[in-house]
Amino acid sequence: MPEGFGPLSECKWRVYLGGEEGRGQFHLVGYSAEDGCLIYSNAVMVDLLG
Length: 50
Hints:
The chain is mainly beta. It has one domain (1-39). It is 0% helix and 52% strand.
């Protein structure tokens, strides 16, 4: 985890596919185990992974 963040609970990967080519993106969503705040990562294009 980046500095300043602790453990997460209820983590999920969200994947979105769309368009004629079925291209997509994903991001991580979870809740701070300390205070329950929603935390999510920046979206990453699947194409960028190789």
